[in-house]
Every structure is written in structure tokens, then in C-alpha cells.
Amino acid sequence: DIQLTQSPSFLSASVGDRVTITCRASQGISSYLAWYQQKPGKAPKLLIYAASTLQSGVPSRFSGSGSGTEFTLTISSLQPEDFATYYCQQLNSYPQSFGPGTKVDIK
Amino acid sequence: EVQLVESGGGLVQPGGSLRLSCAASGFTFSSYWMSWVRQAPGKGLEWVANIKQDGSEKYYVDSVKGRFTISRDNAKNSLYLQMNSLRAEDTAVYYCARAGTSMIVVDFDYWGQGTLVTVSS
Question: Which residues of chain A have pLDDT under 70?
Fold first, then answer.
């Protein structure tokens, strides 16, 4: 099974900051990686698929990059509505595991 | 508008059974892979199962194999998860998710609001 790790686990940032979250896979997954945002009590929301493709309707301040085993999610200028937990998910092989999450909190 | 509405959650004793349903609308249900994902209280997301458009392929996480069965009724635009031999560690919010039209699943683009399953005596 492919294991995903995310760093950091927790991030404290201010509005306007540039934020980068890293997701690492235990083996190569090509570009079969998605990023989700989840707010408390809500369902996850797809942000990025195929490692770098922005889902329709998602603000352009979100971007994804990487392939193989290392991936990043970048928020270019953090907005108040971006404080949430972010998960990566690999879809290269079953089980289609999620990373443990990165919580982005207000500094 | 795409809508996924889960139902069927509740309190069940260890060893018991429960059947979750997900009613889909706003898209051509039979064209999409569908999925169940769960989240234990205060924990992260865990993929549970996928089912292909025609039901011919099903995949499960190891921890539920032999106990859970994913199924669908394309005529009723509905997805199901039959859960047997439930354990305390199955306690979670269960989400139904739409998982793409291609030959393989590459993302989960719409999610329901979730239904809570609590396994406790």
C-alpha cells in the first residue's frame, strides 16, 4: 500500500501569507494526486486534481505541483476563508489513501 | 446542480448491521464511478470503497473487506453501502462522493454532507 505523509501537520499563518504544504508518497504515483480542503463540520472540497489541475470554481491563488513522490499545494495569498484542513490523496493504486492532513490556522 | 444526499446512519451495537444510501441528482449517475469515504471523530479521511459505473468493478480498503458491500442502482440514481459485523472502529461520518467518468478514478469532485454511524453498546 502507498503511504502519504504531509508536512507540516499544523501551520499558523496570517492573511496575505504565502503558504506551502508538502505531500510525499512512499512510492511513485505519477501525477495521480488530488488536494482537498475541509472546514469543520463540512464535507471535503476538491481543489486540485492530477497534481496540478485547478478544479473549476477554485480561486487561482491555489496551485499544485509535483510528480512521482513529492507534491506541493501552494496558496499564494492566504485569505480568511482558507483557514481549514488540507488533505492530499493518491489515486494511483488501491487503496486510494489520503494523507493525514495539514491544519492551517490563524496566527 | 449536483447533489448527493446520504441517509441510513445511526447507533448500532457491535456486530450489528446498517445500510447506508446515497441519493444522487443533477448529473447522469450511471456515467460515474462512485465512492464511500469515512472520517472517524476528530480524525482524517479514509477511503472505504469504489464502484464502477456498471457495478462490474468494486474495490475496498482492507479493513472492511468481507464485511462491507458497495452497490448501486442506476435506475434509482442511488449508491449503497451494506455494513455488517460492525466494530467500534467503524464509528465515523460516512461520505458519498462522485468519482469521475473515465476508466479509472482520478478525483472525487462532489461530496455529500455525510451520515454519522456510531457503533457502541
Answer: none
Q: Hey, is A90 helix, strand or coil?
A: strand
- Cβ <8 Å between B95 and A96: no
CA B43, B72, A50: angle at the middle one, nearest 5?
55
Sign of CA dihedral B112, B73, B48, A71: negative
Q: Which of A32, A50, A100 sits opposite B44 (nearest CB)?
A: A100
Please write down the long-range contacts of A74-82, taking CB distance under 8 Å and 24 or more positions apart: A74/A18, A74/A19, A74/A20, A74/A21, A75/A18, A75/A19, A75/A104, A76/A18, A77/A16, A77/A17, A77/A18, A78/A13, A78/A14, A78/A15, A78/A16, A78/A17, A78/A18, A78/A19, A78/A104, A79/A15, A80/A15, A82/A19, A82/A37
| B83/B71 Cα distance (integer angstroms) | 11
Q: Which chain B residues contact residue A38 at CB under 8 A? A: 45
Give CA–CA dist A83/A76, Å, rounded.
Answer: 14
Cell of A6: 504531509
Out of B59, B60, B108, whose CB is closest to A46?
Answer: B108
What is the per-residue pLDDT across A33-58, written as a single tens digit (0 to 9) for each?
A: 999 999 999 999 999 999 999 999 99
Per-residue pLDDT tens digits for B90-112: 999 999 999 988 878 889 999 99
Of B44, B110, B114, the CB nearest to A87: B44
- What pLDDT score does B106 carry? 85
Confidence at residue A30, expressed as pLDDT on a 0 to 100 scale: 95
